Amino acid sequence: MGFLFKTLFFSLLLLFSHEANADFNATSSATGKLAGSCNIFRGKWVFDASYPLYDFSTCPFIEDEFNCGKYKRPDNMYLKYRWQPFSCNLPRFNGLTFLKKWRGKKIMFVGDSLSLNMWQSLSCMIHSWIPKAKTTLIRREGFSEIVFLDYGMKLLLYRTPYLVDLESQKVGGVLKLDSIRNGDAWKGMDVLIFNSWHWWTHTGRSKPWDYMEEGGKLYKDMNRLIAYYKGLTTWARWINRYIDPSKTQVFFQGISPTHYEGKDWSEPSKSCNGETQPFSGLKYPAATPLPAVVINKVLRRIKKPVHLLDITLLSQYRKDAHPTYYSLHKGLDCSHWCLPGLPDTWNELLYAALIG
């Protein structure tokens, strides 16, 4: 089996590499339709004194792992950048417009801690428009819900880092690459925003599974890109089977980059620690992440409409926007994002897609 997996890996790697440019050109064309004729995912970061969109001290929904202001980050320029597409303007986020349009509806984020990052961001963006609104908040393991009571709108979060099932069996934790039983919790939503990749790279003690399973066979491990491709393919089958496009809009959040290695922006001695400005070059030096190419290949084969929030490149520029050491966690964090901060832009892009 080892030889088979290696052969498959190099075949997929060659295929992904050769088709990366073509795939992302196709993605740009498809996702550009979210905002009419403009590709809202290609642009630049510009200074805007009116940002941020809310204050960390007045939003009740920010967790300490993202609350850089609470943990006394000394600089604040990272809060003052707005994403400007090259050939159009994004609509300014309006929380009241959002609530009125989605009155009585359910919007669910499904994924890992990057979904949590984006869910909390949107909650704060809405709250800043109606700070005295009546809300309820439910938080329990694997599930969170904020209800804006006067509008009957629910913002939900379903935590599942792999999208496919992770089960406890006699042999230990098993990541089932061809099973999504948990998907029952996603049914009946008006909007679904999926995300997955962050946990597929984990090894050692941070890896929550002991085996992967596919077709009833257990594997101690396999190349993670291949496993990711298999898992997303299972997710795609779930979308094709259970999603009614007339009732549910589906988005994929895209790959959120990390900034642990400064070589990605041509400064190999650095990390995100101490970075205070976005990358300002015309072309980000690091290549398109292969998991982003995998996502695009899977999305192109889904029969139901799924819109890619193509956040990867614009987020690669934001080496300055991570918590670093300014959060609840003691270690260096170049994976998640401060709030207020970059995920607010992700939600502005979502807003453009949902509102027009």
How would you explain this protein's 3D organization?
This protein is α/β, with parallel strands linked by helices and 356 residues long. The protein has one domain (2-355). Helices cover 29% and strands 17% of the residues. The protein contains 7 helices and 13 strands. The chain has helices at residues 2-32, 95-101, 113-127, 224-242, 290-301, 312-316, 342-355; strands spanning 43-47, 81-85, 106-111, 135-140, 143-148, 153-159, 165-169, 172-176, 191-194, 211-214, 217-219, 249-252, 307-308. The chain has a 7-stranded mixed sheet. A 4-stranded mixed sheet has the order 7-8-10-11, with no helix packed on it. Strand 10 and strand 11 form a beta hairpin. Helix 1 (2-32) crosses helix 5 (290-301) and helix 3 packs across helix 7. The protein is globular and about 55 Å long. Residues 1-11 and 17-33 have low confidence and may be disordered.
If strands are numbered along the chain, what order do they take across the biggest sheet? Answer: 4-5-6-3-9-12-13
Q: Tell me, what's the shape?
A: globular
Radius of gyration: 20 Å
Structural class: alpha/beta
On the 0-100 scale, what is the average pLDDT? 91
Strand content: 15-25%
The major β-sheet equals:
7 strands, mixed
Poorly predicted tracts of residues: 1-11, 17-33
Strand-and-helix sequence, N→C? HEEHEHEEEEEEEEHEHEHH
The count of helical stretches stands at 7
Tally of separate domains = 1
Q: What is the total tally of β strands?
A: 13
Helicity level: 25-40%
Span from first to last CA? 49 Å
